[in-house]
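quick one before i forget lol
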Amino acid sequence: MNDIHSDETAIEVRDLTVAYGQQPVLWDVDVSVPKGVLLAVLGPNGAGKTTFIKSILDLVPVAGGSIRIHGRPYRRNRSRVAYVPQRGSVDWDFPTHVLDVVEMGTYGRLGWFRRPGAAEREQALKALAQVEMTAYAHRQISQLSGGQQQRVFLARALVQDAEVYLMDEPFQGVDATTERTIVELLKRLRERGKTVVVVHHDLQTVQEYFDHVLLLNGRRIAAGPVAEVFTEENLRATYGGRVAFLSSLLTQRAP
């Protein structure tokens, strides 16, 4: 696999191996994610997609290998990384308002002893406007629909003004309007030179939404530009016989 010069690489993963107990989840994964791309992480259930994201974030123990974000370990570069977790992993019953959740995205810059002030509130309101949630700023998060909750977490990520955005299934359980809003937001981030890595499951939208793809199934099957990697051969190697509509899928082209 050819290395990309470090100035052009947002995430560099080498020989990544992760196991839960004696059960390997990922092994010997090598991936270079170029700066300024929209990358989909694809694979069947249990393929290690979420584990891959959490490994980059230092949220799971790594048995072997190395991970660099813009040339440095995550712990030395965490301010340049924003994370949107799976919506199902969040306690939405926690008693807080939408604006408070978004302001949490500013905590990394403020440190432990400063509270968000007027400037941070303005940033949070701007982020809510970008995801079309301004009218809900003072609503309890438990009162929101699934799509609205996802927008709030995207706004929280936006106020971090990161260089790398990691998102775990941001389209899961959202309505079509929210999905379009998210896609437009991701494309705007890419236009600003940000790198966006998205765990994704809908093969039919990959060519429309993304320009790079990583195919995982315990190991790296293939990675690179969608036009080169999103092929029938690679998808069959990733999903096996579970993808019955491959031929028709791959004849589709994004508008």
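fyi The radius of gyration is 18 Å.
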